[in-house]
Automatic annotation (TrEMBL):
One MF annotation (Gene Ontology) recorded for this entry: metal ion binding
Domain of life: Bacteria
Keywords, sorted A to Z: Metal-binding
One matching Pfam family: DUF34_NIF3
Record: residues binding a divalent metal cation: 65, 103, 327, 331
GO cellular component term, pick one: cytoplasm
Protein source organism: Flavobacterium fluvii
Family statement: Belongs to the GTP cyclohydrolase I type 2/NIF3 family.
The protein's name: GTP cyclohydrolase 1 type 2 homolog
SUPFAM superfamilies found in the cross-reference section: NIF3 (NGG1p interacting factor 3)-like
C-alpha cells in the first residue's frame, strides 16, 4: 500500500479544506508514492516519536499537531523541530498532520471531547463561514433524475441532517445553435423553446471540481448552462468548538472533578464559581480563548478549553465558568480516534498507536 492510499483515507476523515487558513496540514515530509511499511499515530511528531516509528518499522507518522508550522530557512538541527525533520528524512519516514482539519469536523476533536464527558444534543459552537456554494443548472425533464442523482453522489445536496436536498422548478428554456452546434433538441439555426427543469443544489466548496465533473458527465446537452454562487450561510456541520448537555446537572466543584477524571487532567485552572449547577457545556480542544464570547452567547454554563491567559479569565463576566484543563489533555483522545478510524478502513495492515507521551507540561 502506498502512502497516498493512506492519505486518501485520512482526507476522508479530515478533509484538508476544513483546516483553518493559518494551519499547515497534510503531508509535511516524504514521498506519497512510497510504499508504506506501517503507520504510527501520535499527538506530536517529536524526535522520540520518529525513533519509535523506526523501531516499530512504520515509515508513516500521522500526527495531530504539525511539526512544521511556520517556515524554516535553515535545517541544522538546532531545535526540536529541525531535529525531528532531519531524523525523519534520513530514515525515509513520512509525516502527515491533521490538526484543524480534524478540529473543524463534526466527528472530530471536539466531538471526541464531548463524548469523553458524555455530553448529549451536541452541535458546532462556531459554524464555519464562506464554505457553502450553490450550483444552478438547467436540463430537460428526461435528464433531471439522472443528473440530480449524479450530483448527490458527488457530494451535493447535504444540508444539516438531510441529504439529497435540491430545489426543482419548471420553466421555458430558449436557444439557437450556430453552424458549429450539434443540438440535442432542434436543428442548427432553429430557435428552440423547450420546457426545462431548473435544478439547484448546495455543496461544500472543496467539492466543486467533483461536482462539475459529475455535471458535465451526466448532462444531456452539448453546452451545459450552469451558475455557481458563494453563499453567506454558515455550515452548521463544520466549525470550531462544540456545545452539548450533561444528562444530569452537576454542582460546580463536582463537575470540575468529573472533568479532571474523564480527561485525565493533573490540574484545572478556572474562573470564579457562580453558585449554580452546570448543565450546558461548551468545549474547544486546544487554545480556545477566542471562543469565550461564543460560549457565553450559546448559553453555556461552563466552557472547557486550554491556554487561557490571566486576563482572559475576567472575560467570564460572571456568566459562566471558564476552565483551562490543559492543551494536551483537551485533545487527549484524538490519536485514539485516528487509530480506530484507520483500522476500520485499512484491514490487515499495521496501524500503531504511539506510546510516547509528548505533553510538554508537567505538574508537581
Amino acid at each position: 500500500m502506498k502512502i497516498k492510499e493512506i492519505i486518501s483515507e485520512l482526507e476522508e476523515m479530515a478533509p484538508l479544506a476544513y483546516a483553518e487558513d493559518f494551519d499547515n496540514v497534510g503531508l509535511l515530509v516524504g514521498d506519497q508514492n512510497s510504499e508504506t511499511t506501517g503507520v504510527l499515530v501520535c499527538h506530536d511528531a517529536l524526535e522520540s516519536v520518529i525513533d519509535e516509528a523506526i523501531a516499530k518499522k512504520c515509515n508513516l507518522v500521522v500526527c495531530f499537531h504539525p511539526i512544521l508550522f511556520s517556515g524554516l530557512k535553515k535545517i541544522t538541527g538546532k531545535n526540536y523541530v529541525e531535529r525531528s525533520i532531519i531524523k525523519a528524512i534520513k530514515n525515509d519516514v513520512a509525516i502527515y498532520a491533521v490538526h484543524t482539519a480534524l478540529d473543524n469536523h463534526q466527528e472530530g476533536v471536539n466531538k471526541i471531547f464531548c463524548d469523553a464527558l458524555g455530553l448529549t444534543n451536541t452541535k458546532i459552537l462556531i459554524p464555519k463561514s464562506n464554505f457553502i456554494r450553490k450550483l444552478v443548472t438547467y436540463t430537460i425533464l428526461e435528464n433531471a433524475e439522472k443528473l440530480r442523482n449524479a450530483l448527490f453522489d458527488a457530494g451535493a445536496g447535504n444540508i444539516g441532517n438531510y441529504e439529497n436536498c435540491s430545489f426543482n422548478s419548471k420553466g421555458i428554456g430558449t436557444y439557437m445553435g450556430n453552424e458549429h452546434s450539434n443540438p440535442e433538441i432542434g436543428e442548427r439555426f432553429e430557435f428552440v423553446e423547450n420546457e426545462e427543469i431548473k435544478i439547484e443544489v448546495t455543496f461544500e466548496k472543496h467539492l466543486e471540481n467533483k461536482i462539475l465533473k459529475a455535471l458535465f458527465k451526466n448532462h444531456i446537452y452539448e453546452e451545459v448552462a450552469y451558475e455557481i454562487y458563494d453563499l453567506q450561510n454558515k455550515n452548521q456541520n463544520i466549525g470550531l468548538g462544540m456545545i452539548g448537555e450533561l444528562t444530569v446537572p452537576m454542582e460546580e466543584t463536582s463537575f470540575l472533578n468529573f472533568v479532571k477524571d474523564k480527561m485525565q487532567a493533573d490540574g484545572i485552572r478556572h474562573s470564579s464559581f457562580l453558585g449554580k449547577s452546570i448543565k450546558k457545556v461548551a468545549v474547544l480542544g486546544g487554545s480556545g480563548s477566542f471562543a469565550i464570547k461564543n460560549a457565553i452567547q450559546a448559553g453555556a454554563d461552563a466552557f472547557l478549553t486550554a491556554d487561557l491567559k490571566y486576563h482572559q479569565f475576567y472575560e467570564a463576566e460572571n456568566q459562566l465558568i471558564l476552565a483551562d484543563i490543559g492543551h494536551f489533555e483537551s485533545e487527549r483522545y484524538t490519536k485514539n480516534y485516528i487509530v480506530d478510524f484507520l483500522r476500520k478502513k485499512i484491514l490487515n495492515f499495521a496501524i500503531v498507536l504511539s506510546e510516547e507521551n509528548t505533553n510538554p507540561v508537567k505538574y508537581l
